[in-house]
Design brief:
Number of helices: 3
InterPro entries: DUF7906
Radius of gyration: 24 Å
Strand order of the largest sheet: 1-3-2
Organism: Aegilops tauschii subsp. strangulata (Goatgrass)
Structural class: alpha+beta
Protein name: DUF7906 domain-containing protein
Distance between the termini: 52 Å
Number of domains: 1
Largest sheet: 3 strands, mixed
């Protein structure tokens, strides 16, 4: 009975191993996607009518200790900070690391400022 319980526990642990040799956990997992799927995604990204491709990005800013009760007693109005961020940084367009060219994605940033 003890041997069966140990074997069962080992089998449960085996399914969640994260070592590089395990077939489910490797850095080349994206190569396992079928070529037709990769080609369809590539075609969808390059044949769309709207360039750059617009992707919403939600950013949560949590203010801790900015109600005048923090270490330096700084007060900060969360609503004013949210308006400032929306006006200052409404969009972000990442660039290719190798070439520095902007890629065909543009993030529309939505800010949520939460004071706790």
């Amino acid at each position: 009975l003890a041997v069966a319980a140990a074997a069962s526990a080992a089998a449960r642990r085996e399914a969640f191993r994260r070592d590089p040799g395990h077939e489910h956990w490797h850095h080349g997992a994206f190569h396992d996607v079928e070529e037709s799927v990769r080609a369809d995604v590539r075609r969808m990204l390059h044949t769309r009518a709207e360039v750059p491709f617009q992707v919403p990005l939600e950013v949560n800013v949590v203010l801790i200790g900015f109600n005048g009760d923090g270490g330096y007693r700084y007060p900060l109005d969360g609503h004013k900070l949210e308006q400032f961020l929306k006006m200052s940084f409404p969009l972000h367009r990442p660039s290719c690391f190798e070439t520095g060219e902007p890629i065909d994605i543009e993030h529309h940033i939505m800010y949520n400022v939460i004071a706790v």
